[in-house]
Amino acid sequence: MKQLSEMKIHIIGIGGTGMAPIAVVLKEMGASVSGSDRSASVYTQYLTKRGISVMIPQSAENIKDPDLVFYSSAIHDGNPELTEARKRNIPTLKRREFLSHMLEGKRTIAIAGSHGKSTTTSMVTLVLTELGQEPGFIVGSSLKDLGKIASAGKSDRFVIEADEYDNMFLGLSPYAACLTKVEYDHPDCFPTMDIYLEAFQNFLSRTTSDGFILLNADDPNQKLLRLPEGRKVFRYGIDSECDFTAKNLSIQSNGCYSFTFCGGTNEVSVSLNIPGKHNVSNALLVLSLCAVNGLDLEAAAKALGTFHGISRRFEQVDEWNDIRIIDDYAHHPTEIRATLKAAREYFPNRTIRAIWQPHTYSRTKSLLDEFAASFSDADDLIITDIYAARESFSDFGIEDVMRAVQHPSVHHLSGNEDVADYLVEHLKKGDVVVTLSAGDANKAAPMALERLKHA
Question: Which residues is 436 bridged to in the sheet?
């Protein structure tokens, strides 16, 4: 294969959260990059502004003369561009297969886990950048503090969000393999918990011989993982005996946590600027990573205090008449509980109205009991229709969800217009609306607020 800097590369599904950052990195590496998607999005607009050719919709005519075509997990064999490339014997690779080529020669820091990947990857990137390490990075969201979703970087360090879906992370050979939390998810890809855990074991086994593994000691599922021989293993945690821990946790006046990071003889004080105890754990991973690499912990802690989060993760998207709108990507029971708990700590005396859009039939059905018990920190709960995403399902529906969720104030409203109508009628000064959705339900609350502003 040619050097990437000499190649013409076409990306099918370039507007996806996993593919758009790769396009940015390839362009910065010197490759000629084009791509296509079914419809325009914020990501396709982002890429176009950076000089990357994006064609909409997808068609065979979009395949000109690339050296390589690669594509996301969402692209099926019948895709016209994939069919055309194969017909013309143009090499085609899935994202997982391509990553090893793109990251060859890099000391890859891979952040994996069922939750917290995007936030923690962003934290690591910001801290390493502030410490002068000049890392490359790929995050499945927009890093507010750097104003980017990706960069090729200027050093051999490369930070990447290691997604388990479709075993994408098995295309990596990380120098540092780091886990946030491992809980069953993606039943459409991993039929059982054993198969899900096996994927993470396989990921850890790909750690380079001179690298190390960083595990969350508070996570019982990580204790079940068989670890590869000959790799250094470190553990961090809040409630467990481990190499690195957080003590003296307290909530500051800004509603966010401060704590003391302890590891060996090192102790540093940390004051976060994003809410939630789960972000203490995320920050602990970052500082543990820095400690293992011998980096300046005081400077790392200071950098963490400047971290303002990423898009769609406890993101305040609008405010009017003291009504706050918070958008969060939470679509797993643990994520929902953590987000609503953070909202309760951040807004202790306010009415919290949650909008939950169940994401995929398979996940909602498999984890229904856990979902049903996730909303205790919400005063009012709105449940929309299930967001099918990549699925179609016939024997499970919203009626099953509504029967399972026992909440003192729960309502089913089909779509964004219905939700907006409800909010216009019920919102009061001081209310907090938290959207829990990996789909499109985050449009409803801003829609309602716009109506109220102009009423």
Answer: 328, 356
Residue 389 pLDDT class (50, 70, 90 cuts): confident
Q: Give the span between the Cα atoms of 316 and 98, in whole angstroms.
A: 36
pLDDT in tens, 144-198: 777 788 999 999 999 999 999 889 899 999 999 999 999 999 888 899 999 999 9
Give the C-alpha distances (Å, rounded to integers) separating 157 from 80, 119, 212, 287, 294: 37, 18, 14, 16, 14
For residue 1, what pLDDT is reported?
61
Contact criterion met (CB below 8 Å) for 301 and 289: no
Domains of the chain by range and CATH?
4-95 (3.40.50.720), 103-304 (3.40.1190.10), 315-453 (3.90.190.20)
Is the pLDDT at 143 greater than 80? The verdict is no
> In the block, which residue shows the tokens 């339900």?
441
Q: Is the separation of the CB atoms in 186 and 196 below 8 Å?
A: yes
Distance CA 96, CA 102 (A): 10
Q: Are 56 and 13 in contact (CB under 8 A)?
A: no
Residues 6 or more apart whose Cβ sits within 8 Å of residue 182 = 113, 114, 196, 197, 200, 219, 221, 222, 225
d(CA 337, CA 330): 9
- The tokens for 41 are 């999005």
Percent of the chain with pLDDT over 70: 99
Task: Note the pLDDT of residue 182.
Answer: 96
Nearest to residue 268, comparing CAs of 243, 235, 296?
296
Task: Return d(Cα 455, Cα 450) in angstroms, integer.
Answer: 9
Cβ–Cβ under 8 Å, residues 246 and 286: no
**What does the block give as tokens for 178?**
């780091």
Q: Say how many Å lie between the first and final Cα of the chain, rounded.
A: 61
pLDDT band at 72 (very low <50, low <70, confident <90, very high): confident
- Strand duo 136-143 + 148-151: pairing: antiparallel
